[in-house]
């Protein structure tokens, strides 16, 4: 996923501070939210000062590195080198769009499916498998498909989690038979948690990850990236296609083998 700063660049002109340009915004004067006059690529995020054709534009990351600005995004107060009006307007824009995005994701949960690209740490480029799951797919079904392509066996515990949690899993999901063997009710039975449950917990969106750890003593790490989110109609089409391996609600739809 792109970072919030990717759509914005820093424009360096003749003034005492640099300005922020939204490269995704319209370029005409009628589209301008803040300024009139010269409307080169993108839109300046404040109405102070003027833009000139010869002004230099650099990425936020490049500008921050050059000026030793310790900020990953537009949080907090503006650095001395950047227009505070631009900074405030940009921060508000990013926060508003993030809130709208979060609301959109929340409304989708329970109705959409996901394409999960599973990989093993250290072998990500050599081998991967795309598993498409429905909201009602249980973690037990997902586990059965993961075990189809992996070398995982039942001699050691394996556990699913969010992002890069692995042994620090907040889901604590174990395959059903291992749940019974573990005898620890702090864990969760895989058949009792669905993808919709996970999506609600993690607010799953494209680019997010899930994790899998195998063997708690000498752990091997697997993970998946959410490659695509499917609306219900598209999800049905994908699952109805000719697939190599499937359950009632999920399927391996693509793969790369060594």
Would you spell out the secondary-structure blueprint of this structure?
Layout: E1 8-12, E2 19-22, E3 43-44, E4 56-59, H1 60-66, H2 84-108, E5 113-120, E6 128-133, H3 139-149, E7 158-162, E8 173-174, H4 176-182, E9 188-189, H5 195-202, E10 209-214, E11 220-230, H6 232-240, E12 245-246, E13 250-256
Please give a handful of descriptors for the protein shown.
alpha+beta; 2 domains; 7-stranded antiparallel sheet
Describe this structure in words.
- This protein has 258 residues and is an alpha+beta fold.
- It has 6 helices and 13 strands.
- The strands form 3 sheets. Strands 7-10-11-5-6-13-12 form a 7-stranded antiparallel beta sheet, covered by helices on one side. A 4-stranded antiparallel beta sheet has the order 3-2-1-4.
- The radius of gyration is 24 Å and the shape is elongated.
- The chain starts with 7 loop residues before the first strand and ends with a strand.
- About 2% of the residues have low confidence.
Class from secondary-structure proportions: alpha+beta
- What Rg, in angstroms, do the CA atoms define? 24 Å
Distance between the termini: 27 Å
| Spatial arrangement of strands, main beta sheet | 7-10-11-5-6-13-12
The total domain count is 2
User: Tell me about the biggest sheet?
Assistant: 7 strands, antiparallel
| CATH fold label of the largest domain | Structural Genomics Hypothetical 15.5 Kd Protein In mrcA-pckA Intergenic Region, Chain A
Order of helices and strands: EEEEHHEEHEEHEHEEHEE
Mean pLDDT: 89
Structural shape: elongated
CATH classification class of the largest domain: Alpha Beta
So, CATH architecture of the largest domain?
Roll
| Proportion in β-strands | 15-25%
Number of strands: 13
> In which range does the helix fraction lie?
25-40%
């Amino acid at each position: 996923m792109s970072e919030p700063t990717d759509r914005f660049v820093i424009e360096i002109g003749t003034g005492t501070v640099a300005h922020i340009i939204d490269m995704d915004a319209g370029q005409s004067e009628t589209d301008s939210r803040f300024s009139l006059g010269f409307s080169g690529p993108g839109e300046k995020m404040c109405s102070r000062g003027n833009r000139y054709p010869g002004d230099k534009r650099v990425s936020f990351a490049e500008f921050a590195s050059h000026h030793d600005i310790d900020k990953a995004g537009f949080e907090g107060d503006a650095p001395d080198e950047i227009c505070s009006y631009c900074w405030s307007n940009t921060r508000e824009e990013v926060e508003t769009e993030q809130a709208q995005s979060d609301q959109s994701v929340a409304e989708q949960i329970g109705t959409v499916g996901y394409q999960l690209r599973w990989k093993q740490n250290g072998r990500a480029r050599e081998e991967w498998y795309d598993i498409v799951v429905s909201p009602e797919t249980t973690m037990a079904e997902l586990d059965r498909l993961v075990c189809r392509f992996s070398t995982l066996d039942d001699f050691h515990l394996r556990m699913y989690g969010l992002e890069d949690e692995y042994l620090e899993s907040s889901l604590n999901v174990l395959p059903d038979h291992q749940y019974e063997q573990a005898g620890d009710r702090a864990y969760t039975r895989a058949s009792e948690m669905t993808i919709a449950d996970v999506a609600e917990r993690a607010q799953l969106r494209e680019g997010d990850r899930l994790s899998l750890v195998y063997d708690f003593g000498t752990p091997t790490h697997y993970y998946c990236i959410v490659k695509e989110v499917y609306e219900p109609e598209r999800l049905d089409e994908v699952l109805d296609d000719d697939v190599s391996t499937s359950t009632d609600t999920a399927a391996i739809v693509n793969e790369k083998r060594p």
